[in-house]
Amino acid sequence: MLSSITDLFLRIALFDAGVTNPQLQHLAISFVIVMITAALVCFAVSEMTFNYSQVDKLWSLMPIAYSLMALFTFPSPRMLIMFILVAVWGLRLSYNFYRKGGYNIIPWKGEEDYRWKIMRNNPSLKGRFRFGLFNLFFISFYQHFLIFLFCTPLLMVAKNRDAGLNWLDIIAASLMLLFIIAESIADNQLFRFHKLKKQGESTDGPYAGSLKKGFLSEGLWRYVRHPNYACEQAIWISFYLFSVAASGKWINITLAGFVLLVILFVGSSSLTEKISGEKYPGYAAYKKELPRFLPRLF
User: Fold this and answer.
1) Contact 85, 92 (CB under 8 A)
2) How far, CA to CA in Å, does 208 sit from each of 3, 70, 196, 202, 205?
3) Which of 56, 93, 155, 277 could cross-link to 60 by cystine, CB 3.0-4.6 Å?
4) Closest residue by Cα to residue 163 from 255, 250, 242
5) Domain boundaries, the chain
């Protein structure tokens, strides 16, 4: 059964009528097994502990695992570059999650994303059974499936392992590194702002105006409302370019990953902005003034 599902996935995801490479089939099966196992563990732990941020803890780690598996099975210069970039992205994001209290010495504990509590109180999801279904299908399985999808360029590169490095690899790596740095700057600014806000400090520094408003509107937040989200999406769009460099196809099925990721961030940012709009009187004006993800060029 699993072999049939994987074969179907390979035919669709790798844009091929039939994949006969047993190593590639084994790698895809391994990806599927890891994805399903992680989703089931996250669902079980979150249901037992009522902490629904279990997938959040693995969000930055799963791509590292997929990249490492791909590198060991299909080593190549392109795959090594992809692994290094994903590892840099993942370790940095894990550190950011850790300093916000997301990880705990007891693995299933740690700070829960405040939005899950709000979702639990949503009338359409309220109740143990209904939210349990939401947890199973969206929080646990869909999010892990999404992580799996935006990592599928690894499979496309594995399929075309003999394709040499080219100019598009340089562009993809440069863009990915640039957006990782930009996301780091955005996360550091946000962390510093919340730290000052929590301490209740008044300051004449760069966040004075934001502290008065209650939300960050300085630093990279002067240009777009969600620079960290924008960079996260751009990182995986850049990652997709490696599949283009390997296959020679500008449009291939592995783009489904970053497309669905963008849709997820649109929904996630809308919820965040709804909460901010209800808490801070000045947020509506800020929302009208600045774009959500893409800065205005003029």
Assistant:
1) no
2) 58, 47, 10, 7, 6
3) 93
4) 242
5) 2-289
d(CA 298, CA 296): 6
Residues of the chain with pLDDT under 50: 17
**If you search the block for the tokens 């089939």, which residue do you land on?**
25
Q: How far apart, in whole angstroms, are the C-alpha atoms of residue 291 and residue 298?
A: 12
Alpha-carbon dihedral sign for residues 197, 203, 208, 212: positive
Write the Ramachandran bin of 248: left for phi over 0, alpha for psi from -120 to 50, otherwise beta.
Answer: left
Q: How far is CA 133 from the centre of its chain?
A: 22
Cβ atoms 120, 206 nearer than 8 A: no
Query: Which residue pairs from 96-105 have beta carbons closer than 8 angstroms and sit at least 24 positions apart in sequence?
Result: 96/187, 96/191, 97/56, 97/57, 97/59, 97/60, 99/191, 100/191, 102/53, 102/56, 102/57, 103/57
SS3 232: helix
Side-chain half-sphere of 125: how many Cα atoms within 13 Å? 16
* Cα 193 to chain centroid, rounded: 22
- Amino acid identity for residue 122 in this structure: N
Count CB atoms within 10 A of the CB of residue 46: 22
**pLDDT tens sequence across 213-269:** 999 999 999 999 999 999 999 999 999 999 999 999 999 989 999 999 999 999 999
Ramachandran quadrant class, 152 (left: phi over 0; alpha: psi -120 to 50; beta: rest)? alpha
Record the pTM: 0.91
| DSSP structure class, residue 138 | I
Structure tokens given for 172 = 């993809």
